Please model this.
Amino acid sequence: MQDKTEAAGVKLQAELHAQGQAELHAQGLSKSYGATVALEHADIGLRAGEVHALLGENGAGKSTLVRILSGVTTPDAGQMLLDGQAYAPRSIMEARKRQVATAFQELSLVPNLSVAHNLVLPNFVRSRFGLVSKAGVLEKGQQILARHGLERIDPAMEVSRLPLSERQRIEIVRAIANAGRVLILDEPTASLTETDWLFDQLEQAKARGVAILYISHRLAEVRQICTAATVLRNGRSIRSVSLDDTTDADIFEMMVGHRIERKRQRREGVVAGQTPRLQVGGLSGHGLDDVSFEIRPGEVLGIAALEGQGQQALFRSLAGLLPLPAGAVKIDGKPASYRGPRQALRFASGVSFLPEERKTEGILSGLSAATNIVLPFLPRIATLGLTSWKGELKSASAPAREVEMDERYLTFNIENLSGGNQQKALMGRTLATGARTLLLFDPTRGVDVGTKESIYAAIRRFADAGGSVLFYSSELPEIVQLADRCVVLYGGRVFDTFTGDQIDEQRLVAAMIGHSETRAA
Model:
């Protein structure tokens, strides 16, 4: 057995020499959890000074591969080489000692510690008496922030008080600061509206000879920053390709096993003349300034905006998570009078909210996917105040089918599902509430192309049945594809509104930065 292992190692090193310098090379990685095979004979090679994309649907094995490379998970089989030497980390700290660091999609920051403490953890600056020096930690944290263009962030601020986008940047900076050889970024722009800062950081890392593994579902940004990609499907590496020689259609086909035909799903002229289901007039407060719009039955209204333009306050106010600001809100012609999501769901024809952070605001860890889906309407399926496991499964089946979620996952603990299946469960729950107005905040953030198509189809079916949808997306192609109309927020105000074929990326980008052809005219 030892001879075979040594022979395999010699063969792998020979492959490395034949291919040129590769900072990190993995071959035949496999990992199973009981009867579930998460990864099977996966191969990948990363070169110094290059950005390599890892692509695949949720559940394809990307997260498992990232955890193995990061030292979080030990593979059942396979081997890895770092600079030609055996690499088998058994913890994140062991990986960091080899100068391999990861910025995880589900942020790994300690929320009740300061920014500086998170950045230097566990290598705290200590006094001559061996005690942690708060001043020294803050100074070192400030230096790291300044080095990466984040001087605006107070190193003494508690991480939990930062907005999601800033927490994402701290996660990324911490990884870059520890990645002398290999940097792994898992969905780094999932919470970043703009990519310029991140791409500048990656260019600097490339210049230092760092090998970068980049995981993203956004092919436009993958093509902007990456030169090569490895595609996973069902736990196996399908192919490693040069992005210059591969079309998006080729990549989608490798990811899902068949061609995906993207069609604009927007309809025109079918909602005119109907009484508005949701009317918003002159909302001011929570960063909003005289925001007005309306949505009619059967209509999908998109919200486009750069980060921090009031979109989050708008959705949270309408969902009942923030007090309604000054102005007027009507649902089915009735002045809104609810406090909290539960009352919003029961008011008039009902308002249901899908939040942006599924991990902290959406899923309830420790419960099954079925229980997570049926929670909002448990009283409807209870007998004498009690529910049965069979009843929950039965009630969750229809919402699961609506979002094309495999029903076998209903029995799984939801925290053990892929991000895509978690999002399907939350979308199914939102639809199953019976509300006729849906507030969807970035409903496909961080999910694969297959899951996106399932969610798009569910949104359109809901609208076709007379439902009304208000959704914000950080991905403009999503708004172009789905929205019947689009409102652009800028500085907390409605800057412009587009309808039908007016909705294209160029116009939306211009309006999002304060320029508009229609306003100029």
Q: What stands out?
A: The radius of gyration is 24 Å. Residues 2-112+158-256 form a domain with the Rossmann fold fold (CATH 3.40.50.300). Residues 2-19 form the longest helix (18 residues).
